């Protein structure tokens, strides 16, 4: 069944690519990503369990819903004003405004300052032969490490919410600044790479380097579409792409080794990270179906609700509504480790379909993926056709969200929830002008 779904998604991606001429377009990117996930999961390497047909159908329904939503989003009309023109009317040069450039460097200074204390702690721990895997567990709050305060009190919110939210905007902006003026703005991409390395040391995460490559590629495509140039890489751009790719791969390997992953286990580990989510989803759905509990929108939009209840917690006298506690206990347990193969276990990577199914069953998957697809399609259209470079930044963020679907539903995250709040506030403010 997985092979059939993979084939169907590749056909859809091919059809949409012929129209959009972009691998970064939401339908093309999403379908190719999930085609690969389904294909590799169907191979069942490294003793991976077989997935039930029901789960495969859930993935297929969710994929169709995303595609339908994206088509709908692209049909939403965009209002053009004096500063917004069609892409083919632009000059052959695009430069980011000085205000945005200044904002980028301010954000990077803030990010480095916020991470400095935790970075010093991590360097000290690494010098004491503490592995990055233990530091990662401590940063997630799973364990306590002597000399590490990154997961306690207000510092936890700095590392898990405040800094990642600033970074969510700063990294795409830095890439955009660099690609629009490579001769003068090399320091922008250098700062971005340095900060990604700092984040890898602090959290032990590797996703950020994948995001970096995806956002770089998406930004490059959109810029070339705007200035009506053919998508051909010159020697200088090839060297830059190769350098960024090499840094990303090297960083992933180094972080993996630091997390006590042996060289002969690296490919297995990457394979499980990429497609083990399908099997974990299958296992989680079997458990959840037997619970007879539904979250009614509190699971898939956990990022928004958790921020809301955090602010209103004093109103409830420090205690939260019982239904919210039931949602946390019965649904928001993606970190729980389950067996996905005879010798493999996994946690966290439950895909969007687990949380959407936990809300309203199959209807939740249809509505949730259609909504996300519509947002992606709309933002992509604005990025492609409007002369507002912030549109490119927004779609780079949404392209990151699309890749994140191999892990979770984006709006489960407080960081992405805050990004959507900013997106809506900006939209409202522009309408009032």
Give a written overview of the molecule.
It contains 16 helices and two strands. With 433 residues, the chain is mainly alpha-helical. Helix 2 runs antiparallel to helix 3 (53-75) and helix 6 (153-180) packs parallel to helix 8 (207-226). It has a two-stranded antiparallel sheet with strand order 1-2. The longest helix is centred in the first third of the chain and has 30 residues, at 98-127. The chain starts with a helix and ends with a helix.
> Which strand order do you get reading across the main beta sheet?
1-2
Shape: globular
| Total strands | 2
What is the N-to-C succession of helices and strands? HHHHHHHHHHHHEEHHHH
Largest sheet: 2 strands, antiparallel
């Amino acid at each position: 069944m997985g092979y059939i779904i993979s084939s169907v998604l590749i056909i859809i991606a091919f059809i949409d690519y012929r129209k959009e001429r972009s691998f970064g377009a939401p339908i093309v990117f999403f379908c190719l990503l999930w085609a690969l996930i389904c294909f590799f999961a169907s191979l069942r390497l490294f003793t991976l369990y077989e997935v039930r047909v029901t789960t495969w159908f859930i993935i297929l329904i969710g994929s169709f819903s995303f595609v339908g939503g994206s088509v709908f989003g692209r049909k939403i009309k965009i209002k053009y004003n004096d500063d917004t023109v069609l892409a083919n009317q632009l000059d052959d040069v695009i430069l980011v405004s000085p205000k945005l450039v200044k904002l980028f460097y301010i954000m990077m200074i803030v990010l480095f300052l916020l991470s400095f204390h935790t970075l010093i702690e991590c360097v000290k721990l690494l010098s004491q032969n503490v592995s990055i895997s233990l530091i990662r567990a401590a940063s997630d709050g799973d364990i306590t490490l002597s000399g590490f305060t990154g997961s306690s009190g207000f510092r936890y919110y700095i590392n898990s919410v405040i800094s990642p939210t600033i970074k969510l905007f700063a990294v795409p902006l830095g890439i955009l600044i660099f690609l629009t003026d490579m001769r003068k703005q090399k320091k922008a991409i250098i700062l971005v790479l340095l900060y990604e390395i700092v984040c890898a040391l602090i959290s032990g995460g590797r996703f950020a380097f994948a995001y970096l490559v995806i956002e770089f590629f998406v930004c490059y495509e959109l810029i070339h579409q705007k200035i009506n140039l053919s998508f051909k890489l010159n020697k200088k751009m090839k060297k830059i792409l190769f350098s960024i790719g090499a840094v990303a791969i090297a960083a992933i390997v180094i972080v993996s080794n630091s997390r006590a992953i042996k060289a002969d286990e690296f490919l297995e580990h990457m394979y499980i990270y990429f497609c083990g989510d399908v099997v974990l989803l299958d296992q989680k759905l079997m458990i959840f179906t037997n619970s007879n509990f539904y979250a009614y929108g509190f699971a898939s939009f956990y990022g928004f609700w958790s921020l809301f209840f955090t602010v209103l917690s004093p109103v409830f006298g420090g205690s939260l509504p019982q239904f919210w506690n039931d949602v946390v206990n019965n649904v928001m347990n993606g970190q729980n480790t389950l067996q996905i193969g005879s010798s493999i276990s996994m946690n966290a990577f439950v895909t969007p379909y687990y949380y959407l199914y936990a809300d309203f069953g199959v209807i939740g998957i249809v509505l949730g993926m259609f909504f996300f697809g519509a947002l992606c399609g709309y933002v992509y259209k604005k990025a492609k056709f409007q002369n507002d470079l912030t549109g490119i930044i927004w779609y780079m963020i949404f392209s990151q969200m699309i890749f994140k679907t191999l892990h979770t539903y984006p709006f489960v995250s407080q960081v992405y929830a805050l990004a959507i709040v900013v997106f809506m506030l900006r939209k409202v403010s522009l309408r009032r002008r």
